[in-house]
Amino acid sequence: MEAILENLSISDENQDEKMSSLNHSDLQTRLGFLLMSAYRQKYSIYTELDFDFASGKTRPDLCIMPKRKANWLADEIVMQDVPFTTIEILSPEQSLNSLTERIYKKHFPAGVKTVWLVVPTVQTVSILLPDRKQVNFSQGIITDPVTNIQLNLNDIFEE
């Protein structure tokens, strides 16, 4: 029984860990490239950063933060600063419910303004807001209502 409880607590600690896939990796790279190409002068865009918010630990696929200057002599392992926007890509092994639960329990209570939820299989992006409203995109230009960041959905899901 003790071994079972120990395994449960270990799996709880790793609930943010997700299996990646080819499509997931491709989308993460594309989004990072598109965002850096268009917005690197205004924002800093990062992938797979660990955050330790008061609401819990999390590691979004990408995040958009106020512009920061790189300090190559001093690195940060776990971030305390809150990004404007986080981007989560639904992985094949992940449930939509567990992902949205993490967003509403960890990201928004920490002060994240918008979360982009990317669903590869149906090629959609939903921008979630802290008040539980959302803006859904299945074609055209994605426009974040808070940051005004815009990307063409066709560029994200280009074949």
Q: Explain this structure to me?
A:
The chain is of the alpha+beta class and 159 residues long. The protein has a single domain, classed as Alpha-Beta Complex (tt1808, chain A), CATH 3.90.1570. 31% of the residues lie in helices and 28% in strands. It is built from four helices and eleven strands, in the order ααββββββαβββββα. Strands 1-4-6-7-8-9 form a six-stranded mixed β-sheet, with helices on both faces. The chain has a three-stranded mixed β-sheet with strand order 3-2-5, covered by helices on one side. A two-stranded antiparallel sheet has the order 10-11. Strand 2 and strand 3 form a beta hairpin. The longest helix has 18 residues. It is globular, with a radius of gyration of 16 Å.
What's the topology here?
Elements: H1 2-13, H2 22-39, E1 43-47, E2 50-53, E3 56-58, E4 62-66, E5 78-79, E6 85-89, H3 96-110, E7 114-119, E8 124-128, E9 134-137, E10 141-143, E11 150-152, H4 153-156
What is the overall number of helices? 4
Level-2 CATH architecture: Alpha-Beta Complex
How many β-strands, per DSSP?
11
Instruction: Give the neighbour order of strands across the main sheet.
Output: 1-4-6-7-8-9
Please outline the major beta sheet: 6 strands, mixed
Helix-strand topology string: HHEEEEEEHEEEEEH
Helix content: 25-40%
Any idea what the radius of gyration is? 16 Å
CATH topology name? tt1808, chain A
- How large is the share of residues in beta strands? 25-35%
Distance N to C terminus: 50 Å
